[in-house]
Every structure is written in C-alpha cells, then in structure tokens.
Amino acid sequence: MGSLLPEELLASLNDSIRCRELQIQQLACLIASDFPSPPNLVLHGTQTTGKSLTVNALLQAIEHPSAVIRSKECITTRHLLERTLSGVQDALGDAVPLTDGRCESISAFVVQLQRLLDGQKKFILVFDNIDRQREAAPTLLPALARLNETIPNLTTLFIITSPRPHLFHKPGIPHIHFPPYTRAELISLVSASPLPLQPPPSETPPPASANPPSSLSQADLDFLWPRFATAVHDSLAQPASNSLPALRTLCSRLWHPFIAPILAHQYTPREFSKLMVRNRYLFQSEDALKESIIPLPPQPQHPSSSSLNSQAATKKQTTTTLHLPTLPAQLLIVAYLASHNAPKHDTLLFSKYSTSRRRRRGGGGTMAPRTPRKKAANRTISRQMLGPQGWGMERLLAIHAALFKYDDYEENTDGDRARKRNKGGGGGSGAGAAELLTQFATLVGMRLIVRAGAAGADPLEAGGGKWKINVGGTYVRQVARGLRFDIDSYILE
User: Fold this and answer.
1) Burial, 290: exposed, middle or buried (Cβ in 10 Å; 0-12, 13-18, 19+)?
2) CB hemisphere CA count around 476 (13 angstroms)
3) CA torsion angle 150 151 153 156 (round to 10)
4) pLDDT band at residue 318 under the 50/70/90 scheme
5) Tell me, what DSSP letter sits at residue 92?
6) Alpha-carbon distances, residue 325 vs 319, 322, 439, 475 (angstroms)
7) What is the pLDDT of residue 71?
8) Is the pLDDT of residue 66 over 90?
9) CA distance 278 to 235
C-alpha cells in the first residue's frame, strides 16, 4: 500500500514511531491526502500499542487542521462536547467566530460545530479513548458517527480498545488494528534508548581517594544494554505485564543495581554471563514489580543458601497473610471445617450436649469376653486428601453458632464499640444473621469461598446451593492462630 506522503516525511515518521510502519501508511492514505477522506475511522488495539502516539505524530506532519480530545479527562457528556468545541476553536485560531462554549445537548453541539467548520476544506476530529467516557449515553457514539451527514468536511477518528458489534450502529466504517508488540519489537524499542553506565544521581559522590570507574565506551553500552533488556523481559516483564512502559520501568529500576559491580571494578561490561550470575537475585525476586518510592534494599555480594532460604521463608510468611476482621475470619474457619468434615460428625464435633458412653456388655460386674474383630478389607481415604466438599448455608450458620458467640456491635460517636441487645448465638435471626450473610457475601466476593452446587439454585434456600472453601489449610491455620482458635481439634483425620 503506497502512501501519499513524501518519502522523507514518511521515513521520519517511521524513525520516530518504530514498529508501526503499516499503520502509518494506512493512516496516511486515508487522511493525509487532499482527496476526500472517509467520514469515520476506528483505531483499535490494547493499551500501550502506540495508537495515540501514531495519530498525534501524523497529524503534526500533515497540513490539515485537527483537534484531539482525550475523552477519559472529561467527566460528563456535556463536558466532552464543550471541550470538543473549545479544541476545534483553538485549532482554527482567529479564522472562526467565537462561541460562548456552552452546549446543552448533542443537537446544539452539531449546530455550533457546523458554524465553526463552515468554509473549511477538511478538518480531522479525534476522540481518544472514547470507549472510556464517563456517564456516556448509549446514543453518544452513534450520534458522533453521524456528524459527517450534516458536516461533510469533517473526518472523525475514534480511538478505542476493542470494537464491539453494533457499537456505532453504522456499517462500512474502516478499522485499523494496532496489535501488541512482539518480543523482538519490545526489545528493539527499549534498546533504542539505553541508560548511561553511571551511578544514579541520588547517590553521594565517591570520595577523592576512591578509584574512579574506568572509561566505558559506547560500544560497551551497545553490547550490554540489549542483553540486559532481553533478560529483564524474559524473567519479569513477560510473565507480569507484557507492555512497553512496564518493560522500560523495570529496566530503569534494575539497571543501576545491575551495573554496580562494573562501577566497583569487579567485572567488565563484556562479562555479561558473570554479571547475570552475580545479580541473579534481581531476576529471581519480584520486588521490582511493586510500585514503591523506596529503592531496592542492598543484597550481599555472595549470599549463602541458608540466608536465601531464611529470606524467602520470612517474605512468604509476611506477604501471604491477609488480615481479616473477626467475623469474616470466623466464617472462613467455619467454612474450612464444614468443607473437611463429614456432616455425620457435626454432632460429635460441635454439639455441647453430645456424650459418648460405652454400653456395658453382660450383667453385674463381669464382662463378656470380646471376640477379635477382623480388619476391614477396604481402607477409606481421608477427607483431607479428597479436597474441600460442598456444604449448605444452614450448616454453616449452625456450626458458627456452636463454636463462636456472636455479639452484634455498632460504632458509637466516640469510636468505642457498644454492645447491643442481640446476645444470642452466631446463627441467630434478625440483625445477627443479616450481618453474617453480609460478611459471607464479602468472602464470596474475595473468592475465598466459591460455589460448589448448581448455578441456578438459590444459595439461601435449604438444600438449594452448595459452597466450599477456596483456600488451603495453611492459610486458614494462620487466620485461626490470629483468633487463638485451635482448628486442629475440630478436624477428624
């Protein structure tokens, strides 16, 4: 597909916006020429694929007047329409009459826009992220797509994430797809702008007695930076967030710790394999993925296996604990007990009035001799190995009433907790049961408890729905330990 732009201008656009040569040629053929352009044009693709960057660069290169409206910055539809009129007026300058800027409806918007564009040969109006417009009516996009019916010299560009069927209620709109960058394209884009082989500016300068770092040439940087970007992409960026800004952020965070041995005269820039072995903790840890203003903590030069195991155990213990309030924690414990205990054992485990008495055989003080029993031919599998089983809502409330004494609290004006009149069990009626069901719905929303029965059954009716725990025993034991509850005493092996 040939474009109508000069070769020098096209080469300049391809150099400034790399890996988007095909999309630049398609846009140039549709909007850059003096010939009539299509009334509407849709540019779609996932985030961070260069849609807005490509459009802005092309509009600056051509001679036709244009205006770009960022829809996500507009609060309401009226704000969007008024900002569009202001952007069109700023793009045209003093050649158009001034308007008051107020726009109550889409009809008034069309009248004022037609008055502004009267006498113009071609005008390009871009709505960026129009699919994320707040408080947008269902008729907004179809109305914007029909602007060319009353304003023939207007070309409207819509930049969206993913086109849906019948989004504009108008067939025949050209679409240009911006695919995600591939692995080679991401590494090529990041390698085009390397960071310098210098210590970070926040660090204090070395003393005068210290040896200054050896001179590093541009060839050393060109050798080291692409290999470093490839290692960061394969280890952290691709599994976490396969996008260009995420890869650039990770490279900027890990670059200075990675080149610290080079600045300390321990390795040369050409010893990339040794640098990878020395700095393997940077690519094994996920600390660089966390958004924080605190820099990465310094690591020992040669950490031992015991120190690495202790750090990993400490990190796992501190990061996997989710602090729950008292009532949701109790419900999570009860859900775990109901999922791993058979219903026939509920009376034995949770009832306060059940007693197990052995019957005496024979009469008087004599005992009949026992006959040895045969061993069972088949061995039953423990319920702990079968995974969590489903249970009903009535069973959950009954177990909670037997294990925990629920007191309904409310916050008074002083912030202290005042006990109300409901001092019954956890599965009581009224406000207590409503609070339990509310906290249960919170656990379901957090995916700590999931549905196990039929999808169409009512979960609150007797036998209508089944639920089960969705977390492991290690996590539930940590929660129970926070409540000082011995959960192992209520589990039958």
Assistant:
1) exposed
2) 23
3) -100
4) very low
5) H
6) 17, 10, 10, 15
7) 92
8) yes
9) 16
Tokens at residue 57, please? 């660069």
| Angstrom distance (rounded) from CA 287 to CA 455 | 40
Alpha-carbon span 165 to 167, nearest angstrom: 5
- Contact assessment for residue 408 and residue 432, using Cβ atoms and an 8 Å cutoff: yes
Radius of gyration of the chain (CA): 34
Beta bridge partners, 411, equal 417
Which residue stretches of 279-325 are H helix? Answer: 280-284, 305-319
d(CA 348, CA 345) in angstroms, rounded, equals 5
DSSP state letter for 361: P
pTM value is: 0.59
Per-residue pLDDT reduced to its tens digit, 364-377: 444 455 555 555 55
Question: Quick one: three-class SS letters along 405-418?
Answer: CCCCEEECCCCCEE
List of long-range contacts for 292-299, beta carbons under 8 Å, 24+ apart: 296/253, 296/257, 299/257
Strand partners, 40: 156
DSSP state of 237: I
Instruction: Give the mean pLDDT of the chain.
Output: 79
Residues 6+ apart with CB under 8 A from 307: 300
Q: Find all residues with CB under 8 Å of 439, minimum gap 6, and list them.
A: 325, 327, 328, 331
In this structure, which amino acid lies at residue 7? E
DSSP 453-485: S-TTS-TTSTTT--EEE-S-HHHHHHHHHHTT-
Yes or no: say if 38 and 155 are a contact pair by the CB < 8 Å rule. Answer: yes
Between CA 190 and CA 237 the distance in angstroms is: 12
Q: In the prediction, which pLDDT does 406 show? A: 53
Q: Is 68 helix (H, G, I), strand (E, B) or coil?
A: strand
Task: Say if residue 290's pLDDT is above 90.
Answer: no
Instruction: Please give the helix or strand (H or E) that residue 277 lies within, else none.
Output: helix 272-278
- Helix ranges (DSSP H) in 17-150: 21-31, 51-61, 77-92, 106-116, 140-145
Distance CA 18, CA 311 (A): 42
What average pLDDT does range 150-162 have in this prediction? 93
Q: Which two tokens stand for residue 372?
A: 């040895």
pLDDT of residue 87: 92
From CA 185, how far away is CA 393, in angstroms rounded? Answer: 53
Instruction: Round to whole Å and give the CA distance between 30 and 273.
Output: 49
What one-letter code names the amino acid at 348?
Answer: L
How far apart (Å, rounded) are the C-alpha atoms in residues 243 and 162? 17
Q: How far apart are CA 189 and CA 354, in angstroms?
A: 72
User: Position 376: which residue type?
Assistant: A
Cα 135 to Cα 464: distance, rounded to the nearest angstrom: 38
Rounded CA separation 97/302 (Å): 72
Residue type, 284: Q
Which amino acid appears at position 469 of this protein?
I
